[in-house]
Amino acid sequence: MGEKEIKRLDDSRLDSVSGGTEVRPGKQRIGYNVKRGDNLIKIAAMFGVSVLDLVTWNDIRNPELIYEGQTLVIWKS
């Protein structure tokens, strides 16, 4: 995964990204920019998290509908 695909989110960007300003001790908050052809199953596998986690962290109402360019919040151990 390239540097442009995954980036650590700073607090100034959090307000504009779903997932809020939560703090999770022992976890690193990162952002992932959705690319054409991505789906939640593929993204969850890349990061070793569950699809349910992605849906919850990003307040996704329809797990089958994500958009190219959308930034997903991911909490990584």
Brief synopsis:
The chain has 77 residues and is an alpha+beta fold. It has helices spanning 11-14, 40-47, 51-57; strands at residues 6-8, 28-33, 71-76. Helix content is 25%, strand content 19%.
Overall spatial form: globular
Spans where pLDDT lies below 50 across 5 or more residues: 11-19
> What amount of the residues lies in strands?
15-25%
- What is the oligomeric state here? single chain
Residue-averaged pLDDT:
81
Intertermini distance = 18 Å
Sketch the topology as an H/E string, one letter per element. EHEHHE
How would you explain this protein's 3D organization?
By secondary structure, this protein is of the alpha+beta class. Helices cover about 25% and strands about 20% of the residues. The chain has helices at about 10-15, 40-45, 50-55; strands spanning about 5-10, 30-35, 70-75. Helix 2 (about 40-45) packs across helix 3 (about 50-55). The radius of gyration is 11 Å and the shape is globular. Mean pLDDT is about 80; it is low at about 10-20.
